[in-house]
Every structure is written in C-alpha cells, then in structure tokens.
Amino acid sequence: MRARLAEAQSQLLVLAAMAAILATVPLWLHGSGRTVAIRVLISAGVGVGWNVMGGFAGQFSFGHAAYFGIGAYTGAYLLVSHGISPWIGMVVGAVLAAGFGALTGWLSFRYRLRGAYFALATFAFAEMLRLVVQAQGWLNATQGLQVPVRPESSWWMMQFSTTSPNYYFIGLALVVVLVAITILLVTSRRGMFIVAVREDEEGAAAAGVDGTANKVAAVALSGAMTAVMGTFFVQVFFFIDPELAFGPAESVAILLPAVIGGTGTIWGPVVGALILIPLGEWTAGIVRDPPAFLDAVAGRSGLDLVLFAILLILILLFLPKGVYGSLAHRWRR
Amino acid sequence: MRRTRFLAVGAALLLVASCGGDGTDGESETATDAASETGATTESGSAAATESGSATATETGGDATAAGCTELNIGSVHPLTGGLALDGTQMDDAAKMAAEDLSVDGLSITISSADSQGEPEIGQTEAQRLIQDGANALVGTYQSAVTTNLATLAQREQVPLVIDVAVDDAITSPDNDFVFRIQPNATAMGTFGAQYLAALGEASGEPVETVVYMHDETSFGTSVLAAFKAEASNVGIEILEEIAYNPFEVQDVTTEMQRVAAQEPDVLVVTGYYNDGVLVAETANSVQPNVRAIVGVAQGAYDLPQFPTDAPDASTGIFDSNYHFDATKERVQDIRSRFEEANGDAMRTAAVLAYQAVEVIATAAGQAASCDGADLAAAIQDVEVAEPLLTFPGPITFDDSGENENAQPVLMQVQEGEVVQVYPEEFAEAELTFPAVPWQE
Amino acid sequence: MSRTEATQTLRTRLDIPRWSWGVVVAVLVVVWRWAEVSELAASGPGRTIALQALLTGLLIGGVYGLVAMGLSLIFGVLEIINFAHGAFLTLAMYVTWLIATTTGIDPYLTLLITPVIMFVVGAAVQRVVISPAMGQPLENQLLLTFALAILIENALLLVFAANPRSVRIPWASAAIGPLDFPLRLGGAIIELPRILAFLGGLVIAGGLFAFLNRTRTGTAIRAVGLNPTGAALVGVPVGRIQVMTFGIGTAVAAAAGVLVLPFLTLEPTTGAQFNILSFVIVVLGGLGNVGGALVGGLLIGLTQELGGLLFPGQSKLLPVFIIFIATLFLKPEGLFGGGAE
Fold this sequence. Notes:
The complex is a heterotrimer of chains A (333), B (441) and C (341).
Chain A: H1 2-22, H2 25-28, H3 31-56, H4 65-82, H5 86-110, H6 115-133, E1 145-146, H7 166-186, H8 189-199, H9 201-206, H10 211-237, E2 239-240, H11 242-246, H12 248-261, H13 268-288, H14 303-318, H15 323-332
Antiparallel strand pairs in A: 1-2
Helix pairs in contact in A: 1-7, 3-7, 3-10, 3-12, 3-13, 4-5, 4-6, 4-10, 5-10, 7-10, 8-10, 12-13, 13-14
Chain B: H1 2-19, H2 47-60, E1 71-78, H3 85-102, E2 108-115, H4 120-132, E3 137-140, H5 144-157, E4 161-163, E5 179-181, H6 186-204, E6 210-216, H7 219-234, E7 238-245, H8 254-263, E8 267-271, H9 274-287, E9 293-297, H10 306-310, E10 319-322, H11 330-343, H12 349-367, H13 373-382, E11 410-415, E12 418-423
Parallel strand pairs in B: 1-2, 1-3, 3-4, 4-5, 6-7, 6-8, 8-9, 9-10
Antiparallel strand pairs in B: 10-11, 11-12
Chain C: H1 2-13, H2 19-32, H3 34-42, H4 44-78, H5 85-103, H6 114-130, H7 138-160, E1 175-176, E2 179-180, E3 183-185, E4 188-190, H8 192-214, H9 216-226, H10 228-233, H11 238-260, H12 272-285, H13 290-310, H14 317-330
Antiparallel strand pairs in C: 1-2, 3-4
Helix pairs in contact in C: 3-4, 4-8, 4-11, 4-12, 4-13, 5-6, 5-7, 5-11, 5-12, 6-11, 8-9, 8-11, 9-11, 12-13, 12-14
C-alpha cells in the first residue's frame, strides 16, 4: 500500500512537472502551431480515456466515438439550444457517457463477449448511435450543430479570441486531470482489481474480485473521460456533425494515440499523441513543400497519407508495445 | 511597417491610374525596406509617377482611402485527398490559374494551397496555418461541414472567406460579415428547381403536377428537398413520395425505382452526388417507370460531361437544374480550354467557381483600402463582378448575409451525348426536349 | 475458447433452440408493421415492389456474401480484423479496370488474371507486414490493416486520381437465347451483371468449401485456424499456411471485385463501403465458415431491402446493426457455428 502511494506521488510529481513545462508552450507557439498543439491535447485526452478501458482493463474498444460523440453532442446541444455553459454540458455529457458505457458494457460482459467480438460490438454501438442521431431533427440531423460566435470572450461559455492561449490552457488542464485520474486509478485498489481481472479473470474471481463489476466500472470511467474531450472539441472547433462525432474514423483516431504510444501505460497515450499529430502535419508539409529530391511529387494528393501510413506501419512493426511502452520496457530490463 | 509599405504602393498605383499610366509592378521583392523606396524599383511604371506616388504616400500616411491592396495572398482550402479529391484538386488548380490570369501590374495574387482531407478540424487547422502565413482571404471548400467550420474561423480571424462550393443555407448569416457565397445555396437550388420544373410543364402544354423525389440522406439532399418542397406548393407540384438513400453506401436502387414506378408521377426528381446519380439513371433505364422526365435538382452527376460517357444509354434526355459555367460566354470557353490543356481533365463547374471566387477577391482588392482582412471583406461586400463565369442573370453582388444576389442555377439536358444548357432562354445552347426519357427513343 | 464457453453457459439457461427467437422476432416485426405489409400486399404495384425487394435483397446479399467470404477465411484462420479487405477489393477492381481498358478484353475474363495477381499481393502483405504482428494484441493488428487500407487507397489516388471509372459490358442489356436482359419477372427487374455476381458467389463459395474440406492444404488451413500450436506440432508449416490463407482470402476478394465492377462506379474509396457489412456478415455466418458467409450475406441483403420497405425513412443500416448485436449476444459462434474451427 505504501509502495503504491509512493508510486502515485512520484507519477503525480512527474505530471506536475510536465504540466509546468507544457504550460509555457503558448509563449513561443502561435497561430496554427497552437491549433496543432490543441489537437495534440485532444488526441492525448481521448487516448488517455480509451486507455483505461482498452489498456488497463484490457477491453479493446473499437467504438469509443460513441462516448466522444455523446460528450460532443451533449455539450453542443445544451449550448446551442438552451444557452447552457459547456462546463455544465461537459459534466452532463460525462455522466451520460458513463451511463451508456455501463449499460452497453454490462450487456456485453453479461453475454461474455471478448476480443474481436467485443471490439465489433462496441463498433456496432457507436454506429447505431450515429444512425440514430443523424435521424433526429432536434439535433439538426445530418447538418450538425454550430456553436454561435460570441462578441466577447467568456470563461463561463468557454469561448475566446483566436489568438487567446486559453483554449490551450483548458485543454492542458483537462489532459492533466485525466492523467491524474489514471494515475490515482492505477495505484488504487480498484485499479489493481481491474488489472487483475484483465490478467486472469478466473483467478481474480477465485480471490473474490467481481470481474464484471470491475470491467463495467472501467468502461464507465473511460467513457466519461472521453466524453469530456468531446465537449472540449466542439468548443475549439465550433462545429459537430454525426459523422465527426460518432463515425468510425473518430473511433480509430481515439485508439491510435494509445496504441502508438503504448497501451496500459500511464504516459503511452500522451506520447502517442505527441508523435501522431505532428507526424501527420509533417507528412502534409513534406508534400506541400518537398525537399529537392522529391520535387516531382509536390502537391500530389494522397502522397502525405501514403507516407503517414508507411510510418504508422513501421512504428507498429518495430515498436509493437508502442513508442513509450517499448522504450519503458527496454529501460526496465 | 508592412502596412505603410502597402499604403505607399497603393497610393502610387492610384496616382498612376489617374495619370493614365499603364500601372506599376508591386511585387514584394521590388518593394523593399522603406516606404519611400517603393516606387524606385518598379519595372514598368513611369519613374515620375511612382516617385510622386510614394511622396503622396508618405504625406498621407495612414489615410486608408489613398491606399490599396497590391499583394494578395489567397488561401485555397479544398479536399485534395479522399473521396472528393477529384473536384478538390481541380478547384485548387483553377484557383492557381485564376491567380496567374488576374495578376496584373499593381496586383500580384498568390495562392497558398491546403488539403482539408475532407475533415472539418483539419480544414480549420490548415486555414489557420494559411492565415498565419499571411493569407489575406480564403476560398473553399466544396463541403458544407468544412465550410461551416471555416466560416466561423473567418469571422473570428476577421479574414474574408469566399465560398466557391458549399450548399448549406446555415453557413452564411447576417451576423457574419466575413463570409460570402457565389453559388446558389440550398434554398435557391430547391426553389429554382421547382420553378424550372413548372416551366417545363408549361412549355409542353401539359403541366407537371406530381413528382417523386429521390435524394441522398445527407444534409445536402435533405436541405435541397426542403426548399423544393416549399416552392413546389406555390407552383402547383405535389410530391407523392420522398425516397432517401445513403449516397456513400448505396449499391442498388431497383426497389426504390419500383416504388417510383408504382406512384406513376409526372417527373422523377433526383438530388445527390456522382456515383449514386449514375446508379439512379441506370436503374431507371432498366425499370422504365412511367414518367415524362428525370430531372436532377443540384444533382452532382447529370451536369457533368462525364455522365453521358459513363452511362451512354441511360443518360439521354435527363435534366439537371444546377449551377453551371456559362457555356455561351467566350471568356469561359477560353478559360476552360486552357485549363484542360494544362491539367488534362475537362474543367468542371466547381473549378470554374473556384476561379470565380479568386476573381471576386481580386476585383474587391482593387477597391479595398488595404489587403487587410477587414478591408478586403468590406470591399467584397460592396463589390460588383460583372460578366460572371456562371449562368447568373446579373453581376455578382452580395446581400447582407453574404449570398450572391444573382445566384441562379440553369437547366441542362443531356442531348446526343453532351450536356447542354436549355433554360432559361438567355443561356440556352439548344432547344429543350420534354417529355424525354432515355428509353423512349 | 471463450465462444464455446459462452455457448455452454448459455445452453444451460435456455433450452428452446435460439433460432426460434428469430422467427418470433420476424413475426413481431410483421405485426408491428402491419400497415406497411398490408399496403404492399393490397395492390399490384405494391406486390411488384415487395417482389423486387426480395429479389434485390437476395442478389445484393449474394454480393455481400461473396465479398465477406475472403474476410471470413482470414478472420477465422488468422483471427485478424482485416480492415484492408475493402481496400484490396478496390485494388483488384483497378487491376481489372486497367486490364479491361488497355487490352479491350471482356472484364469477366480477368477472373483468370486479377485473383492470381491479388493472391500474390495478399501473400506478400501477410509475409511482410502481418506475420511479424501475429502474436500481438488485437489493436495492433487492426491498426496495421487500417494503415494498409490508408496506404492502398491513397496510393490508388496518387496513381489514378479520384476520377470515377466504370466498366460496363455491352451485352448486359441484350437478348441472350430466349432470355431478354434485363430480365423482367412479374414486373420486377433483374440485371444480368447482378445475376452473374450472385452465381459467381455461389460457385466460389462451393469451390472454396471443397478446397477447405477436400484437399490437404485446405485441411491444413482449417487445422491452423483451429489450433496453430497443435498444427505446428503435427508438422503443418503454420507460417506458410497463414501466408497462403491471406493470399486466398485476398484472391477471393479480387474475384468479388471483378464480379461487382460491371455495376459499380470505381473510385479509390469504393471498396471501403463493404468493410462494415462484411464484418457483420462474417460474425453472422461464423468465423471461417464460407458457406455461412454466403447465407449471412443473403440475410443482410434481405434485411436491408425489406427493412427499407417496412421502416421507410430509417437508415437501411440500422436493422442490420440490430441483428448484428443480437447475434453477438445470443449466438456469438455465428448462426451456423464456425467452419474452419
């Protein structure tokens, strides 16, 4: 117990130090670079959320867009239709996402879905949400919801000028909170149970640990964490539609940082996001403004994504535990 | 500093213009450090005029009326990858071509391209990058979702966005002074579609009274349908049935076509994208419902020259009420032939719209106080682009919301393997044939 | 493994055969939607629509089944969620389009060429990209195939641009013998290319079934799917069999690509639309069960078409996902059990 406490303390210290360093980013990064930084934060946040379920609890989710979308739509709907602050929307969205996660998770575990089957079930749930939402007139159907631009900045309404660093600070704060939750979870009794169930469900059950309850708890928490970033996403980008919120592309975008960084590690998703988003920017930049030997391909559409895919494959093949996971593994040996 | 330099060049230009000189070259490399130097290094302008011009600029200083916009950088945001890459790349190429064509002495236009990948958040990041890198205005983006996002960004960054293609009504609003749209929006598309349909009936002596409406289930199809519906009741057209489908996954519409056949409407109306449009036409040709015509409203396939090639048997006689380049204008023919020479593919209307968007900004830049976003936006609000490249009944001017006041689609028909304009009269290339369905030949 | 366990526990709880629930649900839906059903049944045109929905559902379902077959084999034997399946399909269609337009031969003749090329491509992909990741967690494999899909789609975009292409066969609407195509059957329409795709699906399913059950290689493939460690112990070259399986799965996708090209419009993203449905069908039919995939495809095709009639205004996909979830929960081994396992 004491060792775990010490572990939690040291990890939280690392987190505090990192947060302090990252808080200086707006000082030297402006304009679109800052938008990229915010996208890194969003990617890290959803990855951290996914990681609780997909990494620590070992329940591979291929439909996390469901939670992201619930958070995004709850915040957007309350704001656009009722003028309610996104901070409240964020909380409501997290609760709804947790409820949805608990329900679908419980059903899936009740029917003993595992591995690929579980993954496909999560996927189907997300798709069903997308199809249901795009048929709802009160959610503006396929046209999606647009956040109204306010004449003045407002913390309460989470809206600032484009040059304001506040979006970045809010994103950073959210990610710090989510990582802190992960650290506290992993070092808690509950976290130990969750990991124990992942490693050996029958053994854990023999020791009196309720497998289903722990897994459902992980899914609910993971869903709530992801939903929070969904609400934030809408505030940053001012717009959400069913495809963007619940689409398969979003599900992949959510699990990418965790897998690339390293699943089941505290820092994996953050590292993954720090690699992925800049990597995408970099490949796009190369095609836009190629070095001399690549001149022939300048501006050819598709090339940047080809490059991105190749790099992704290389990372997955040569660092199968994720970039952070593989390095941490080697370090420990 | 930069601003004063622009002011100087602009003032020089104004003077040259008033003196009847043939203008100066205001490229950035020629305008170096100090404002007073600006005039000295021009290539074509008369030395006397530019010198006095720069003197004026130094005197008038910040007086905006004497300044202008000479170095215009336009950010072009389009889907260059993904399923919409074909139109996206064409539009980007067209914007670049327009910049080259419209750069004159005293106004250099450069295009910075960005790939939205069809994703709103990437579109926004890229647009922000362009603005940061000095884009004075944006054109784009072909998709309503991405455009909606950019419209908000334009307002917040105070940089004008001239929409080449995007149909959703909600993108523009009187509250947003930085967004302008050239093409007819969903409401205009649906409204004119219904009116043209009524005109078809009148011309044939037997009114069109009933239709079945097949449309894609995305916001595109549903919003055009809503506008069509509103106007249909005004012109005495009844919609017997609405049939929606998913345009990206649809592989067979035979059952849907049987539902059309069962209703026996006067006309089958279709709204959607390319692949599904071809599928609907081919299926109609197989099922042969008892209709007098198939009419697209803002249908993305039936106005393209490729359509009769892809569906030679199933395309004859099909109408489309859509935005279209004005095939009757010589200037348009010239642009399109040069584009095809340079890029290999026939220039689509979407690309012509991108060209037009750059022209709108370029024209406004000539009257703007500076290349500054707010000045440009104010100039675009007041601009009048005569001789539009599209089949608009008048010049391009923008209303309070930023909608083109003369945006209007044209009715086209596939005749002998070609898409030709048939209505209204002033744009007609050929006589319309109605009733007309592919299988009645 | 987990699935059999699940089955056993469930069996102790439910004694009535679970397929009977399907009948109950079908009856309930008909009662629920009686207004639509009776309206269709009342008039001649209504009956034509119903007949068309039935025929179209079967025909398009056959295509779904055909596309899903290769995926089922790969999923069943390698336990990989192959998200590149649709991209391979697209690639095969481009190969066919290229051959057909440059040489001018009938696109159906490329059935002899395209699958062979794609077998090599698939085998090479398994050898180079997938096999190093075989022991890794599910998400790594899924992302690998996902990255492959991005790679293939954008490479095609790079080479061929996004111009939609189509291959149409001139004899598709003509009289062949006593039959006049497109065929009219009680007012319903059947187009020749769709019949050919359907029949092709049947033939390929039969051939694949015979191959898996009657040949040594087929037996080895099934053995690897069942228990790779055990197969290795009795001397089956597991790695090579896996390479071959991926190759065959891709070749089947290629054959499907050839058969659907004459009635689809080809773009770099064309195949991707089949991915989701294919996974649904594979689960319905049972992993590695090629016959099951075909029947699963028919079921999904019919669900889409008839669902479209009974629930107008709803997305055709919604009932598909409802059936999918129900199958996952109630009969996770698929409607007919696993084939290769």
